[in-house]
Design brief:
- By secondary structure, the protein is mainly β.
- Helix content is about 5%, strand content about 40%.
- The protein contains three helices and 27 strands.
- It has helices spanning about 250-255, 295-300, 350-355, and strands at about 5-10, 15-20, 25-30, 35-45, 60, 65-70, 80-85, 90-95, 105, 120-125, 125-130, 140-145, 155-160, 165-170, 175, 185-190, 195-200, 205-210, 215-220, 245, 265-270, 280-285, 290-295, 305-310, 315-320, 325-330, 335-340.
- It is globular and about 55 Å long.
- The termini are close together.
- It is an enzyme of class 2 (transferase).
Length: about 375
């Protein structure tokens, strides 16, 4: 629709494509050999199976990047599968008439690379497996659901390579599950503000939870555990719950930026080659993209050592290109760009206070 701006990003691993939602359209961008990104085509209209147009509230690549699973705030009891070859919604999944889904996640960290048809669903007080092959109007797998009290206010989930789940809530709590259908092995009490995004490394060792003005980095390794287990597999001793490391901007940098901080959901770079080499965390606030070097944070304990790049417009979404951490896909309201991580620099007063003029960008 006229006047719509880019709102979300799904980075593909197959065919080198990324998908950007803009109102009820989707821009398709291809990753070029020189780590840049170029506009490819537009999917002109997102409508449900009854031909009713809608603007997705979430979009997740699925089934070897052949589909996008879309959420529609107006219809929280349903999900929609868009076939990317045809560029249209071909299935409407009626998840459950009593369970409004507030967030979805892949069944495993790299589930989008597999032909796994299932996914993880989150409602305000439940975590469950959704299996579209069940058909009918209840796609929740009976023995893979876990309900909590109605006031749990769950908001977001992420999975490890083995399918363990990290779950965040609006109350600032983080729960760690080794699988679906059981209670959390670890429940970390409210750590602060509402959690708006969560991500986890492939092996489950580190969780990053995004609050509005800071990130929380949690080391899930159990202290003195001979098997090297994490809080996903076994509860922490009561007196030894992990103390999250706070990643936040220096107060003087916030002043130079001249705006209140509101982070987009932070992500680790993805490392599906099995060597567990997540090295970097990326997020953004306003026109600034920010990265933290994971090893440096862990080695020095400094949560305020970051690199930054300013754009001419607000960054609405950002993520690393799939399988590496050298380049980042940056989505602006009217443009999509790729930036090399090496182009982000230590912030200075000058670099933060410069206000580039907003460009027109690539409309599609």
């Amino acid at each position: 629709p006229k006047g719509a701006a880019n709102s979300m990003l799904a980075v593909g691993y197959k065919h080198g494509r990324s998908f950007v939602v803009r109102g009820s359209r989707i821009g398709v961008f291809k990753h070029t050999d020189d780590d840049d990104i170029a506009f490819d085509t537009t999917i002109n209209k997102i409508d449900d199976t009854h031909g009713k147009e809608f603007t997705p509230s979430a979009a997740m690549l699925h089934d070897q990047d052949s589909s996008l699973v879309l959420m529609n705030k107006q219809r929280p009891h349903e999900l929609y599968r868009m076939d990317l070859e045809y560029g249209k919604v071909v299935e409407e999944w009626k998840v459950h008439e009593d369970i409004p889904t507030v967030a979805i996640a892949a069944s495993t960290k790299y589930g989008q690379m597999t032909s796994d048809k299932t996914l993880v669903g989150v409602s305000h007080n439940m975590l469950y497996r959704i299996d579209p092959r069940l058909g009918g109007d209840n796609l929740v797998v009976q023995n893979e659901q876990q309900a909590y009290t109605t006031k749990s206010h769950f908001t977001t989930a992420a999975t490890t390579e083995s399918g363990a789940v990290a779950l965040g809530s609006a109350k600032g709590e983080v729960r760690l599950f080794d699988r679906l259908g059981v209670r959390a092995k670890t429940a970390l009490p409210a750590l602060g503000d509402a959690i708006v995004g969560i991500d986890v490394t492939s092996d489950g060792r580190y969780v990053v939870a995004t609050c509005k003005t800071y990130l929380l980095l949690i080391d899930t390794k159990l202290p003195n555990d001979e098997g090297g287990r994490t809080g996903f597999q076994k509860a922490f001793p009561q007196a030894q719950k992990p103390a999250p490391k706070r990643l936040q901007l220096k107060p003087e940098h916030v002043v130079y930026m001249g705006a209140s901080i509101a982070f987009t959901p932070a992500k680790f770079n993805q490392s599906p080659d099995g060597n567990s080499s997540e090295k970097t965390i990326v997020t953004s606030t306003g026109p600034f993209v920010i990265t933290w070097n994971l090893r440096r944070v862990l080695g020095t304990g400094r949560g305020d050592a970051y690199h930054i790049k300013q754009y001419a417009d607000v960054v609405v979404a950002d993520n690393f290109c799939f399988g590496q951490d050298k380049s980042i896909v940056v989505t602006l309201p009217n443009d999509v760009q790729s930036v090399k991580r090496s182009q982000l620099a230590k912030p200075t007063r000058e670099s933060l206070m410069v206000r580039p003029s907003a460009g027109g960008g690539r409309l599609y």
